[in-house]
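This protein record is not my work; I was only asked to verify it. Where you disagree with what is written, explain briefly why. This is what I was given:
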Amino acid sequence: MRRRPGISARLKLTLSYAGFLAVAGALLLAVVWVFLLRYVPDTSQGLLGISPNRYLLVRTFAPAAAVAMVFLLVFGLVGGWILAGRMLAPLTQIRDAARTAGNGSLSHRIRMKGRQDEFRELSDAFDSMLEQLESHVAEQQRFAANASHELRTPLAISRTLLDVARKTPTRDRGELIERLHAVNTRAIDLTEALLLLSRGDRGTFTRESVDLSLIAEEAAETLLPLAEQRRITLDVTGDVTGDVTGGAARTSGSAELLLRMVTNLVQNAIVHNLPVDGTVTVHTEAHGDTSVLRVENTGRRLPPELVPTLTEPFQRGTERVRTDEHAGVGLGLAIVHSIVRAHDGTLDLVPRPDGGLLVTVRLPGTPTSASPPRGAH
């Protein structure tokens, strides 16, 4: 934004200091006149013939007072300029840091020394903002690099398959078409996941009253064939405590996004489970003004240091690549995390001592009326 040139803050402070000092000097002279000189007799012989009269005092005092006023004005200008420079020096550091950040360098930090005051608080807040911006930009760069890599892989495979079909006319076309269909399906799934993740991050959706218990039932019903195929027991349970009654766990948000959130959690719990005879439990409950969703599954033991990375994009637990049809694209929990944040909730991941993971989602609750009891799968 272009602005017209103006007086600098340092000059304004300097003029303010000098003006204040000049006014203080003038007031002091006025006090001397009001409370001293006006009571001195104005006679030719002075007071009792030995003290100077008012006329002599004024003639003697006025030049000295004028010199003192000039000195105060000059002293106020010089001293004010120096003091203003010292006071505004921290702002100069912050300005330089802001310009450096504006040029694209977010690694610079002010780290202003000295005791705590308003300028140090501003400096610390600016450093904290730069740190968050740098972390966010680095995260976005990693995300873009990973997304480009993930999208490039199916495209490269498709090109290879097309080259094979072109160079080897006798090759089974049906097999190539099936492989191309699988690769393209994966690319489409990845693109849709990226779009959904972006939508969740923006938080641009219409909010409505949603019952997490019904969402959990719908997701479980959709994924029940997958659970049966893997010989995994899938149960949906519920409980209500606190002020909320009727068996519902309501929140305000997008039903579509919340369904995707629960579906991702349940699908991950099924896929990352024991080979056979595993369990997945989906539990919803309401605690006063909070609606809670818990998804717990059996499975292999997870290292504690691995759990915080599961919500990062393109992380697939202990395996970078899976070979089955439910390999996913490494965005399942990242999408969940994004949706939870967009709904002002919290997401907690805790490894179970016997193996598997306990995922807890807490969302702001909304009042509800009685609803039908939930079933189990």
About this structure: Residues 241-246, 318-327, 369-377 have pLDDT under 50 and may be disordered. The chain is about 55% helix and 15% strand.
